[in-house]
Amino acid sequence: ELPPSEFMQVADSTWLVLNVVSNGREPSGCQATGVTKIARSVIAPLAEHHVSVLMLSTYQTDFILVRERDLPVVIHTLAGEFDIYREESGECVPVTCDDVSNGFLKPKPPASPTLHPVQSPQTRFCVLTVAPDTLPAIATMLIDVLFYSHSPPWDAATGSQDLDSITFFSFSLIEGYISIVMDAETQKRTGELWRMVRIGGQPLGFDECGIVAQIAEPLAAADISAYYISTFNFDHALVPEEGIAEVIQLLQQRQESGR
């Protein structure tokens, strides 16, 4: 419904949403383990088949966005381990490989995936949810924080931001559930705090595959919780504050082993 604008950049792909559930129930948001739960079973196989994904973690569960044109590859890749359904008029209808077999070609994987640099700002973040009926009361505050809060200096010449402190605010409203990520100073409350790892020294684009897998797999192997948010330019993994040193060490080892 947004009108065309020269100030708005739109990706040239249409994306579909995958949601992984266990025994017909979505994972509970009480103990967020995030993308690491599906790293080996979903993200890694899709990366091996050269499928680019966008990740969106929420307080309640995680969503994987795939390009519509990649759906045949996605179905063929995941059908061996998962029962796959599509939603039609609110009902879940089983999907088989035969439903999307037309034109299926297994893509050739890239010769060697790009290992992107990671940075970890000192900013501490909170992950929270609010009741939908409170949204009108806090809408003005959310708009103020999202669009008008103070931002660290941005160097337009280098396209870089001072990563000692990074401005990051995420708001999602999915099926009535609201998830918010904001820095701890804005939130002004105690509780579980998260630190960020930002992936990519330059904007990543949408054509490359395996970026999420490169981060999620080593964290999953170390049983480290992660909350992963893909954005238009960069990917962001949030991990519990007490585990940030181990995360940085794991990702540095990944970088060194890939050289």
Describe this structure in words.
This protein has helices spanning 39-48, 71-78, 135-148, 184-187, 211-221, 244-257; strands spanning 15-19, 53-57, 62-67, 85-88, 91-94, 118-119, 124-130, 154-155, 160-161, 170-174, 177-183, 194-199, 227-230, 235-240. It is built from 6 helices and 14 strands. The chain has a domain at 118-151 and 161-201 and 232-258. The chain has 259 residues and is of the alpha+beta class. It is globular. 24% of the residues lie in helices and 25% in strands. The strands form 4 sheets. Strands 6, 7, 10, 11, 12, 13 and 14 form a 7-stranded antiparallel sheet that branches.
Summarize the structure.
By secondary structure, the chain is α+β, with helices and mostly antiparallel strands. The protein has helices at 39-48, 71-78, 135-148, 184-187, 211-221, 244-257, and strands spanning 15-19, 53-57, 62-67, 85-88, 91-94, 118-119, 124-130, 154-155, 160-161, 170-174, 177-183, 194-199, 227-230, 235-240.
